[in-house]
Amino acid sequence: MREKEFDPVTEGYLDYTEGVKKLTHRTITDMRCSYRKVREYTEERHPDKEIWQLTLQEYIRWVGEERNRGKRAGSLNKQLCHIRGLLEYAWRSGRLDRNVLEGFILKDAHQRKPPRVLTEQEAEDLIQESGGGTPAKRRSRLLVLLCYGCGLRTSEVAHLNVQDIDREKREIVIMQGKGGKERQLPVPEGVWTELMAYLADRGGKRGPLFKTAIKKKRISTREINETIKGLGEQAGIEQKVTPMVLRHSFATHLMDAGVDIGIISKLMGHRGPRETGIYLHALERNKRESISHIYEEDITTKEEHNEMGSE
Prior knowledge:
mainly alpha
């Protein structure tokens, strides 16, 4: 049994988020890291208080010290979100009169740098470079298409299973999304064709969608990164191509095509307004129709397109 790291209230909240809210192990680890950072401050200046017992003024002083060390608002807001959840738990359980961090969010004075994205021509070159008739090349091509054509995170691609493919609805069910959220993602025609061809090569009805070539174990995020990086170099793209760059390109090209940001947010699997800036209210029908905007006939080879048209 793991030794308790924090006081009973904090540990109780962590158990609640893991057991009831079903947050991922990675999220719980991030929360523990945030609590450690605040505890370093409390142990030195307020040894008689637990982190959830600090006043708003004491949290403001802690934030000020962190800012003086060069911490950006985005990083601190994430930690404050973790602490705010703990305070909400303590308040609802009757241990606090109020959540002193409710509504407390930092605004960074520095302009946030836009994410790195590919041009549409670079995306086309990358897709063409990943083409080929062998099973290995089809696997590499599908990795690119799931990141750029569907906007999946690297970890989401790595955790996909064969049984997550809904053939009837032509959707991918993301079971391991950020924050433990599950979502159903419509797959555009070109990507679906590639996916079906890959499944025909792979065989089997269950298990990891992508396996390593030698040990036949679940593919790692590192191998996905290396595969896509290598394809980017082969395509002659100057900037480093990563799954995250492809995911950002997915969202940017949809936005350039005029797709509502709420629909993009839902496709991306964002958690809510704090990530996207607006509330999501798009209909499922609009979500499915909008994703097709960035897909051109070049997502499959001309030969494949002709075969599809003749069927």
